[in-house]
Amino acid sequence: MGFHEDVSVEPMAALDDLPQQWRVPGLTIKAVLRFKGLLVPIVTVALWEILSAAGLIPQNWLPAPSAIVTTLLDLWRNGDLPRHIVATIARVGAGFLLGALGGTIMGGITGSSRTVRELLDPTIQALRNIPSMAWVPLFLLWLGIHESSKIALIAVGVFFPVYLNLLEGIRAVDRRLVEVGEVYRLGPLALFRRVVLPAALPSYLVGLRSGLGLGWMFVVAAELMGASRGLGFLMVDGQMTGRASVIIASIVLFALFGKLTDALIESVGRTIPGATRTR
Predict the structure, then answer these.
(1) CA torsion sign, 127 to 133 to 138 to 143?
(2) Which end of the chain is less crowded, N or C, counting CB atoms within 10 A of the terminal residue's CB?
(3) What is the pLDDT along the chain (279 residues), one digit of tens a residue?
């Protein structure tokens, strides 16, 4: 056998060699590889539970996963958890729609016009670096402690990634594509809709996903603004009452819903031709 010969062996191929009585129905190489991203969380939770049961992790600092699940079930049974979940999802949804709309409009305008970009982009880039908590007192002064101030804060967080990614996506469009559109005498709007926007879609999709992620981060700050419900409020309530299990349960729910909504945008992007970069 020469050294140049490929002798690599697929590690999961052993599944196909198992005796029939040992095989699990539906367990194929493709199915296992599809969910390999769950391996690290599963191993982490299992190790966490084992160390907690052995008394190596203080329960008042980091409760066992089983204790966190029990806390979630108790909150669900007494009706508190659904109320908090609905409030947070509604705020993130409204803030995401407003922020994404504003980021799309401003990103499209500044990306399409050099003059507008030179006028507005420096100011927008400066505003982008303001910490989220710095907006809280201003929005409280302007909008009070009502839902509008919370949604506005989330919209600010969503706006900047959408704006920046769409702007850069438009600027990266191959000039030859634009020239082809001009040869066919497309007007400015038609050129943007039929040539520029499709070419910038991958960057735009990244911006939407990044904006949604920041929306989930900003909602915690938003729910500090006099909220009486929401996962952020539940987390702070757990801190005030010394219930670590409630705090971690809230963090887990933020991670879960953030991942689910991100996967939703990603799956929608896959249905749009040209919206995802090929690998």
Answers:
(1) positive
(2) C
(3) 444 444 444 544 555 555 555 555 555 566 566 677 788 888 988 998 898 888 888 888 889 999 999 999 999 999 889 999 999 999 999 999 999 999 999 998 998 888 999 999 999 999 999 888 888 888 888 888 888 999 999 999 999 999 999 999 988 887 787 777 777 777 777 777 778 878 888 999 999 999 999 999 999 888 877 778 899 999 988 888 888 999 999 999 999 999 999 999 998 888 877 666 654
CA distances from 41 to 25, 36, 45, 62 (A): 24, 10, 6, 16
Residue 129: both structure tokens together: 């670096």
**How many Cβ atoms sit within 10 Å of the Cβ of residue 175?**
7
Q: What architecture (CATH level 2) is domain 79-270?
A: Orthogonal Bundle (1.10)
SS3 71: helix
Q: How many CB atoms lie within 10 A of CB 66?
A: 13
Which of helix, strand or coil describes residue 61? Answer: coil
pTM of the model: 0.81
Query: Is the four-CA dihedral 238, 244, 245, 251 of positive or negative sign?
Result: positive
Per domain, the residue ranges of the chain are: 1-63, 79-270
Please give the structure tokens belonging to residue 24. 């699990």
State both tokens at 257. Answer: 């819903």
